[in-house]
Amino acid sequence: MPSPIPVTRLLPKEDMCPSVDIRTCSSPLSKQVFGSTLHVPLRRLQGRVASRLWSSVILWKELHCLQPVGSGGFGSVYKATYLGGTVALKKVKKCTKNKLASRQSFWAELNAAHLRHPNIVRVIAATTCVPVYLEDDSSIGTILMEFVGSGNMQQIIDACVEPLEADRWLRYSLDIVHGLHFLHSHRIVHLDIKPANVLRSSQDVCKIADFGCSVQLDGDVSDATCLRHAGGTYTHRAPELLKGEGVSAKCDIFSFGITMWQMITSQQPYLGDRQHVLYAVVANNLRPSVEDQAVFRSHRGRLCKNLLSRCWTGEVRCRPSAQEVLTQLETLR
To answer: Which of 15, 189, 219, 320 has its CA 20 to 30 A from that of 180?
Structure first.
């Protein structure tokens, strides 16, 4: 299952790498820690410290102007004002059929909360505790995140009359893989990379969002039983996961390959019945079409086609690492 925050990450540490911020949080690992709060002086939420700090307490009186942004099986997302800045508030919904899965999804959202990277949506605060006047039986917890804005990559693809320009999808691809490389260097696998989970900022920068399916690896590969609670999106899911095999960082590389193909072609990867697609991906090596696409006939297109075939190969050991994908994308520029 997605790992709750390890005990070692619950202890405050001051002398850390600037890209890693380890702070106390509410965690189901211990009764003493569960529901705890980190009291942060407001002056510490200004300037450089604000860019590194995340808290397990939400200052509810400082939260204003909630506006619905979207909702789904995961819960609801709102745009709000917090401590004078714009944030996104995510309420994780309790699944009546599988309450354990809902709790696991909430804690999985925090797997990358201690990390800071320009291509990863930053967590500001998260808690399972809410004021009495805001109590909601359908919600497990609340997460405050930076508000990225400008929509997600799926919305951009759907709005395109023609495919994205090469310079644009290359830049977006580099943003995504930079984020993946950083996550993988901290042994975090996202497991649900797809256009809808890639947000675009007002500065036209892509950021990876929605860590509800993520896992923290103990080694290079973890047992697939950790995925009993959630499966990601079947059109982007690596075949080894469909077969119940181990989880590794290469699962994200497969999903990235499908996502990159969508950014290049502005199309959906598969048509037809879900079960038929799942069977064909595993048994018949079904992949999105590159043979009848004009964009893959140029010199750059052929290099890109080769990269995609490596990313979504069924042989896990033959897939490139995020660092190798970055190198190849740079050559495409």
So the answer is: 15
Instruction: Supply the pTM of this predicted model.
Output: 0.82
What 8-state DSSP symbol labels residue 3? P
Helices 322-332/166-185 angle, 10° precision: 160
* Distance (Å, whole) CA 194 – CA 213: 12
Kindly state the average pLDDT of the residues 315-328. Answer: 97
- Closest-CA residue to 91 (of 115, 73, 116): 73
Tokens of 238: 């690596």
Q: Which amino acid is it at 24?
A: T
Residue whose entry in the numeric block shows the structure tokens 């390890």? 6
Residues paired with 70 in a beta bridge: 77
**Selection from 44-53, 111-120, 291-300 with the highest mean pLDDT:** 111-120
- The distance from CA 2 to its chain's CA centroid, rounded to whole angstroms, is 13
Q: Residue 55 carries which DSSP code?
A: B
- 192 tagged catalytic: yes
Measured CA to CA, the distance from residue 140 to residue 142 in angstroms comes to 7
Could you tell me whether strands 215-216 and 221-222 are parallel, antiparallel, or unpaired per DSSP bridges?
A: unpaired
pLDDT at 220: 63
Q: Between the ranges 16-30, 216-230, 281-295, where is the mean pLDDT highest? A: 281-295
Cα 319 from Cα 71, distance rounded (Å): 34
- Is residue 269 a contact partner of residue 275, using CB atoms and an 8 Å limit? no
In this prediction, what percent of the chain has a pLDDT beyond 70? Answer: 77
The CB density around residue 167, as the number of other CB atoms within 10 Å, is: 9
Residue pLDDT, tens place only, 236-275: 999 999 999 989 999 999 999 999 999 999 999 999 899 9
Q: Which residue is catalytic, options 175, 192, 210, 252?
A: 192
Q: What is the DSSP string of 257-286?
A: HHHHHHHHH-S-S--S-HHHHHHHHHHS--
CA-closest candidate to residue 73, choices 219, 213, 175, 194: 213
